[in-house]
Amino acid sequence: MRLCAPVYNYRSADEWVERHIKAGYGAALWPLGRDAADAEIDAYAKAAEDVGLVIAEVGAWCNLLESDKDKREANISYVTGQLFLAERVGARCCVNISGSKSARWDGPHRDNLTPETYREVVETARRIIDAVNPRRACFAFECMPFMYPHTAKSQAALLSDVARDGFAVHADLCNLVNTIDYYYNTAPLCREFIGSFGDRIRSVHVKDIKLDEAATMKVIEVPLGEGFFDHKSLLVECAKLDADLPMVLEHLGSEAEYTAAAARLREYAGELGLEFVRL
Length: 279
Hints:
The protein is built from nine helices and ten strands. By secondary structure, it is of the alpha/beta class. The strands form two sheets. It has an eight-stranded parallel β-sheet. It has a two-stranded antiparallel sheet with strand order 8-9.
């Protein structure tokens, strides 16, 4: 396993790598857009390769189910370009969400989980992958609570129906906590999901969640260690997969918060006799 989080205050590829080494991160989020100069892209990719820094993922965050046809085509083109970039730099995956019928790109909508939308998601994934035909990187949809894939079952169906070697799994198990049963039983959720997909999982997002004290179910994100998610079970299951698996800390507001979260996750790992790869 390799810890990963955003790094700050670098001005070159070498400084970018140094920030990761200093923080004890063995994997990195790709920092450049596809519009960066070729020489700069090559410099960052080579700097990572030279020290063994794994590029966890290239983000491609946009709505692939945008209702406006022209905007949707532009988004598909953008994601295809990001997958090309991921393949070029040797990232483990290019990741996006499957999309939403909502006016908000990542919002809930009554039509997000219909059979018709499912078919759109499958065809869009095939289209993007077939345009790139990746050999090193994979394309993946991050798990989400109210769009595909929202359960282990729907993730398995997508793998089967997309039916491409270049399609993989991106695990964010906090996003799968969409029922009260899952909230109070995240250990079996970890075993079920990670056990189902194994090394098809290319990257893992790590955060923490807490049930808000409201009359209806509302789960909020909190700093790692302040919520109810069973991170030790997550670590145990992830340790069974390949040694380069990135565990990506996210949605924190500052370098200090990421440092604290990384320390907490290392503490949990130490209690289990597990270690993260360091450079």
